[in-house]
Amino acid sequence: MITLPNYVKIKNNFCVAYYGNNREYLVQLSLLRPTIESSFPGLQMYIACQDDSIHVLKYEKKVFSRTELINNKNSLSYVKEISDNIDFHPVENLMVESDIEFQSIALTNFPNFSCDITLKNTGKNHLKRCALLTNGCFPTKSLTGSQIKKAIEIIESNEYSVDINPIDYNEFDAVFGVENEYLYKAASTGMQTILVPTGIGENLFKKLFPNNQIINIYIM
Predict the structure, then answer these.
(1) DSSP per residue over 13-27, as a string?
(2) For a surface tag, which of 94, 100, 171, 187 has the fewest beta carbons within 10 Å of its beta carbon?
């Protein structure tokens, strides 16, 4: 039981918990938190995740690991857990069911990547660098070998050099690939980011980053 004085203190402390492996959901929740809080004046939104995923939000405030949440549950009025779903995107659904309008993160206007794979005559010393992210977590599919080959051709035809799944994407001029935490982190910093949709987050990506590009890679 919560006493009335304590309830008054915590009534606006709301937590969204996600304990799955799609760590981009944590980045998305972090990006959407200002919009959610502004939609409900006074609301303080916390995010909870698995202990081994807490590093994804290491620079964020109001974040709990699963263990910390257990120890701090009396400081929250409500914990809403979202989970993986193959029929709808859980983060997008949270916004829709809460009747919250999306606010896009339109940081920069970028030139579009062309899908023309005719290689241009540009010396390698003049190439910009693009990180190709191939690994997704269900329901997002990883790129197949044929899709990776096609993606490399597209990137190189746009006069970028390619690094596949680099450890640090911060040293690059663009990021190209499937939904994962690195793609969303790159987009949130204003980096040119190109999504290859293989999951259920294409619509959310469009809403958050309307200036970024989506390229389908179909292999027959």
Answers:
(1) EEEEEE-SS-THHHH
(2) 171
Residues in contact with 26: Cβ distance below 8 Å, sequence separation at least 6, in sequence order: 18, 47, 49, 53, 56, 57, 181
d(CA 187, CA 193): 6
Domain-terminating residue out of 79, 97, 115: 97
Task: pLDDT band for 104, please (50, 70, 90 cuts).
Answer: confident
Q: What are phi and psi of 156, to 5 degrees?
A: -65, -35
**Residue 118 domain flag:** no
Q: Decide: 130 and 161 in contact? Cβ < 8 Å.
A: yes
Determine the structural domain holding residue 129 and report its residue range. 124-214
- State whether 93 and 9 are in the same domain: yes
The reported pTM is 0.91
Q: For the chain, give the longest Cα–Cα distance.
A: 72
d(CA 32, CA 39): 11
Q: What is the pLDDT of residues 148-169, one digit of tens each?
A: 999 999 999 999 999 999 988 8
In-domain check, residue 52: yes
Q: In the chain, at which residue ranges do the beta strands (DSSP E only) sit?
A: 13-18, 44-49, 63-65, 78-82, 128-133, 160-164, 174-177, 192-195, 213-214
